[in-house]
Amino acid sequence: MTDEQTAHYKASEYIYDLGNTALENGFKPDEHWEVQMATAAEKKAFEKQYYYPTVATSVLPELLKATFALVKTQLNQVMKAQTVISSDRFAPEPVYEYLVAFNLNRVRR
Question: What is the pTM of this model?
């Protein structure tokens, strides 16, 4: 199986999970998923900041960007460049390993 086929499979599986979760949690027609690539710490922060449901999946780093692009395309969302501003210019770049989806309308208060 090639990397492209694997990314397509992972994206399809993730879209299926998002659809089921939205249906189970009574999403209204105007509610949508916000999907982000995240590090382990960012994933935990998203899960803490937003009410259930958040849907996260682990993706191999070499497949993550392709899978992320496929998910955004299937959700008809525009990809925005993620800007990482480090306070320490010598710090290593973050290693994204998760796709995390959450609903911006369901914030913890």
Answer: 0.79
